[in-house]
Each structure stands twice: as C-alpha cells, then as structure tokens.
Design brief:
The complex is a heterodimer of chains A (about 270) and B (about 300).
Chain A: E1 21-30, E2 33-43, E3 48-53, H1 59-66, E4 74-79, E5 82-83, E6 93-96, H2 110-115, H3 119-122, H4 129-141, H5 157-169, E7 175-179, H6 187-202, E8 206-210, E9 223-228, E10 231-236, H7 259-270
Parallel strand pairs in A: 3-8, 3-9, 6-7, 7-8
Antiparallel strand pairs in A: 1-2, 1-4, 4-5, 9-10
Helix pairs in contact in A: 4-5, 5-6
Chain B: H1 2-5, H2 8-33, H3 39-57, H4 61-81, H5 87-108, H6 116-122, H7 130-149, H8 151-159, H9 161-166, H10 171-193, H11 198-209, H12 216-241, H13 245-275, H14 299-305
Classes of the chains: A alpha/beta (about 270), B mainly alpha (about 300).
Chain lengths: ~270, ~300
C-alpha cells in the first residue's frame, strides 16, 4: 500500500517528543468496584504496545481511561504531552472500540460508517473531496474498498471489524487504540490487521492494542504490558511464542483464585 | 379534490400533515438507529401532563406540552446516558406518571368532560387553527434544520457513541439536542396523529423504507417520502371517508410497510444477481470419502448390526 502520509520519517523520534500516552498511577473504579489500582502506561510514537491480561484484569478500563471515557480517581493522564483536561486534538487519536458488530438499527453503508472517522477534521463544514479521498485510502488499507457501497450488516464479523479499523484510520491518527481487534476475526482479516499495523507504525504512529493473548500479532509488538487485578504485573518485551495461556500457572477458570500463585506469574513471563 | 382544497381548514390540515410527515421520520430515524424506537411513545405519554397543565392554567396546551415534553426528554436522556440497570424502571415511572397526571389535571380543569382531551390523544387535524399552523411550522422548521443539518454528527453518535466520544464530538450536547428535537416533534405531531399514535409516524416510515435501502442517506430520504405520502393520503382519506385522520395515517403507513416488506426479498435477489458474478450457482464441490449409498441398499445397516 502506498499511502501518502503527513508524517514522512519512520525513524525513531527524538527524545524530546512527548509520548503519545503517559498514564501515571491511574486509579479508577466502575460501579463502586476498584478496577485500576495504580497503573502506569507509556506509549511512544512509532511503538506498538500490547495490553494483556485475563478477563477482569482492567485492560478495557485502562483503554477507556486513556480515551477519557472512564474518569481517574487518582493519577494523571497526558496525551501527546497535554493533560487530559486541556487535550483537544482528538483527531490525532484513532479508536477501535470493542464491538462485535458495526451495524445499528438502521442500514448504513461501509462508506457511511467509515466517514464518521473524518468528523473531527471537517467538523461542521461539508464533507470535502479530501475527506472522501481519506476514506477511500482507509478502506483500501483494510481491503474493503470494493465493498464501500455495501451495507455493514451484510458483512461477516471479520469484515465488520475491518470497517471499524478503517474508520479509525480515516483521520490519519498519530495514536491508534484498538480494544480486542482480534476477537472473532478470521485469518484473512488477521493478516489485514497485521499489515495495517505495520504500515501505521512505519508512518510513525503509536499503537496501543488490547489483546487477550499475543497470538499472530506477536512479531509486531515492541512491548507487552500485562495487567493483573488492576496492577501492572509485567512491562517489557514480549516473550516469543508465549501467550498468557502458555504461561505456567495460567488458570483460565479462576483468574483471581490464589494470590501466592499469581505472584509467580510475572517471574514466569520474564524467565 | 378541488372542492376539498377550497376549504381553509383542509388547506391548513394538508400543510400540517406535510410538516409532520417530514419532521417525524427525520427525528425518528435516529431513535430507530439507536434501537430506541419506542422512545417517542413514552414522550407522548409525558406530553399529556403538559396538555393537562395547559387546560388547568387556560393557556395553550401545545406550548405547555412542548415545555413538559422537553423536560421529560432531557430526563430520559440523562437516565439513558447513565446506563443505569434500573433505567427502564425509571422510564416506566415517567411514562405512566405522565399519563396519569395528565388525565387527572384535565378532569380538574374547567373544560373537563368536553371531550377535548380526546382531540390531543387521537389528533384532530381538521380543527388546526392558523395560530396552530404557525406554531407547527416554526417548530417543524427548527427540527428539520437540526436533524438534516447535523446529520453527520447525529449519525455518528447514534451509530457508535463510544467512538464518537473519542473523536471529540460533543456527544452529551448532541444527545440532549436530539432528545429535545424528539420532544418538539411529539408535540408538533400531536394535533395531526394524536399523542397515542405519535411514535408510529416516527418509527413506521423508517421501518418501511429501510427494508429497501442499504444506506442511511437513502433510508432517511425514503422515510421522509413515505411520511409525507401517508400523511397527505391519510388526511385526504379522512375527509373523503369521514374517518379520524390519525388512525388513517398510521394504518396507511403500516400498509406501506407491508408492501415494501413483500417486495424487499425479490428486489434484494435481483440486486445480488446484478452485482455478484463470482461463485457457482450451486455447490459443485465433491467431498472426499466413500460414495453415497442409496437408501434402498441394506449394506451399511447390515454392517452396523454386526
């Protein structure tokens, strides 16, 4: 894919460039139950960070905190060096929420859904040719340009996920946040996702991925952050060919069962 | 037909019908998109309290209904936005409280028993006054300007609220604006189809149009066309056949829904034939394995019996 980009240097950014995401000591609760108990998370430009953890470990809440959807009770959040309260450049963020479908109660075409990704750029002004071209590029990037006029409800689950990714790409974001993009996605769409991530990183974008396990995206990931019970249990390079399921002591049925047991797991990851 | 058009009241009725035929589906499509199709029905119930207040204070029931309905709509939106698990219970309190309160207020007012509440419940388009028409026109213009002018923004928040919030769209403000527009539409349509059938004109044209469309834009245009068509035909029919206009309009809309439903499947098949040339007509892949044995051959069952 030959996407014309605004950022032309894929080289690692200078140290003076602020990180895309800097979450420090984040504490948050949902429905009165504490979910994050002091999470630190940094994503730098050109970096792919995977957020891993069992169900209920706080992955999705962390992402929602980063997008401002869940308020922090303690701690700080900076996006591109700007505190959340003063952050206005939402067009720099492309978000793929955790969803199983792109359809709603009324039919909509693939192009109509992806076009909403341009809203932060054209705002109240009319949709222009540049917006249309950007939507075409985003659709081409995920291999859905030939389906642009089809209804999203007629697509398979993997294709709908690709539409949601294209919607996030339409604004040419500097930070791409994806919540479980691999859930219910077929092999062809997984390959499209991997290629898209590679192209976005080459462009200089930062990527934050929520994953249940590393899986086929593992070679792309620079850093894995593992959450457990709302705390960071590991922050470092991913261990090759190791998903959470392969870790010793990983228990899918009772993720909170035994605390002594759980403290062994970070060591297991690093060993 | 020309005789019908020569009456002032019929001219006003037809203009009011066109206005409602445009505004109700224009707002309703967003409620259907968000799977809140019955929200308009609840607002109709709440508006009854406004009508009752208008009766008590001897002021215009329409403006009182607008005020109460906007308040109710904002409350509903706040309940929805909080994502409260008991939200449906709170809405039930609001709906039935609004209806009971309305009837109670009307019964205590000076006009009690005159049957005038009936005209708000079922609509009385033939008694639309010039002042009513001016109100309907002004409110309808605002609703159309907002729902068509902000269609990209409203589409985004109703399609995927989580995503819209991260794109920096003022989701809360737009949600409240949509709720207020729905409330205004309910009161605009009140004189034409009545509070009990208001929601039908917001939902049924959309449901009818979307059986034939694949895009949101086409659904919006189609539903407004259906809305105008059934409103005009309903009012004309109610004049010619001497039946109430509200039920006539709603039943016509349901007929259109049924007709569109009947022709949707053949149309979709034709569209698929035109666009998709790839793939064989029938499965011609031979699966590996032993040849199928005729049911009359006893060999397999004999093998099983051993």
């Amino acid at each position: 894919m030959t996407t014309p980009t605004t950022l032309t240097s894929p080289a690692p950014p200078a140290p003076s460039v602020p990180p895309a995401v800097r979450l420090h000591d984040a504490v948050a609760s949902r429905g009165g139950r504490p979910v994050l108990r002091g999470v630190d998370l940094t994503v730098r430009p050109g970096e792919v960070v995977a957020l891993l953890g069992a169900n209920g470990s706080g992955k999705s809440t962390t992402v929602k905190a980063v997008t401002g959807a869940v308020p922090l009770e303690r701690g700080t959040l900076e996006l591109f060096g700007t505190p959340l309260a003063r952050f206005r450049a939402w067009h720099r963020i492309g978000y793929v929420p955790q969803r199983t479908t792109a359809a709603s109660g009324v039919p909509a075409t693939v192009r109509e859904v992806v076009s909403t990704g341009r809203l932060p750029l054209h705002r109240l002004l009319p949709f222009r040719r540049a917006d249309r071209a950007a939507v075409d590029r985003a659709l081409a990037a995920v291999g859905m340009l030939d389906r642009a006029r089809d209804g999203v409800a007629d697509l398979s689950g993997g294709q709908q996920q690709r539409v949601l990714i294209a919607r996030a790409l339409a604004g040419a974001p500097d930070l791409l946040i994806m919540d479980e993009p691999m859930a219910g996605v077929d092999a062809a769409s997984q390959q499209v996702l991997a290629d898209t991530l590679r192209a976005e990183v080459a462009r200089g974008a930062a990527v934050l991925l929520v994953l249940h396990e590393l899986g086929p995206l593992e070679p792309l990931i620079d850093r894995a952050v593992v959450l457990r019970d709302g705390c960071v249990a590991h922050d470092g390079p991913p261990v090759p060919n190791t998903g959470l399921h392969a870790l010793p002591g990983h228990d899918h049925v009772h993720p909170h069962a035994d605390h002594g047991h759980e403290h062994d797991r970070p060591r297991g990851l690093l060993s | 037909m020309t005789e019908m058009l020569s009456y002032d009241f019929m001219q006003r009725a037809l203009i009011a019908a066109v206005l409602v035929g445009i505004t109700a589906p224009a707002v309703g499509i967003y409620l259907v998109q968000r799977r809140q199709a019955l929200m308009g029905d609840g607002m109709g119930h709440v508006a009854m309290t406004g009508v009752g207040l208008g009766f008590i204070f001897q002021t215009s029931p329409v403006w009182m209904a607008v005020a109460v309905c906007v308040l109710g709509a904002v409350t509903m939106e706040l309940v929805r936005a909080r994502g409260n698990q008991r939200g449906d219970i709170a809405l039930a309190m609001l709906f039935y409280g609004g209806m009971a309160c309305g009837k109670l207020l009307v019964s205590k007012s000076a006009q009690a028993g005159a049957g005038s509440l009936e005209s708000y419940l079922w609509g009385s388009i033939l008694t639309v006054s010039p002042a009513d028409l001016a109100t309907i026109g002004a409110l309808g213009a605002v609703v159309v300007a907002v729902t068509l002018g902000l269609r990209r923004q409203l589409f985004a928040i109703c399609q995927d609220e989580d995503f819209a919030r991260v794109t920096g769209v003022p989701v809360r403000l737009l949600n409240l604006l949509l709720a207020v527009m729905a409330a205004v539409t309910v009161t605009v349509a009140m004189r034409v189809v009545g509070l009990l059938l208001v929601s039908a004109l917001m939902v049924v044209p959309v449901a009818a149009a979307q059986q034939l469309t694949r895009s949101f834009a086409a659904t919006q245009a189609g539903s407004i066309a259906v809305g105008v068509l059934v409103a005009l035909a309903g009012v004309t029919g109610s004049y010619q056949l001497d039946v109430p206009s509200g039920p006539a309009i709603v039943l016509l809309a349901i007929v259109v829904f049924a007709v569109f439903g009947a022709i949707a499947a053949p149309l979709a098949r034709r569209r698929h034939r035109d666009t998709q040339e790839s793939g064989p007509q029938v499965c011609d892949v031979r699966l590996p394995g032993p040849e199928r044995v005729d049911a009359t051959t006893p060999a397999p069952s004999a093998g099983l019996a051993q």
